[in-house]
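Check the record.
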Amino acid sequence: MRHFEARLAFEADCADVYADMLAGIQGFTLLDTRSPEHYAAGHIPGALSLPHRRLSRETLELLGVPEDDLLVTYCAGPHCNASTRGAIRAAALGRAVKEMPGGMLGWTAEGFPVAVGEEPGDLAR
């Protein structure tokens, strides 16, 4: 039981993230840890593109990510480990972080909206 409870402390479900976005919940930043090309092809509206290899204190600051925000990392899906790598880098910086293991695969399977292009876009589009 402790194992599964602990997983929930470090993971975010696609449906929960979407519900929080719809409710206007603040205090978290979605980080797409895939390549810029994959991000541009389709990403979660509002997510920032930050490939895991480039995640640093400086890049978070340049992107304007508040220091007290929970970072939620995601990548392509369960078959990809870029979100885990990003979460490790964020945690090493002392940041609060959760991984969304469903990634884009889980997001689109739920039928949630997708933004296209180099900008974060927003949920209303």
Q: What stands out?
A: Strands lie at 28-32, 48-49, 70-74, 97-99. The mean pLDDT is 95. The CA atoms of residues 14 and 107 lie 6 Å apart.
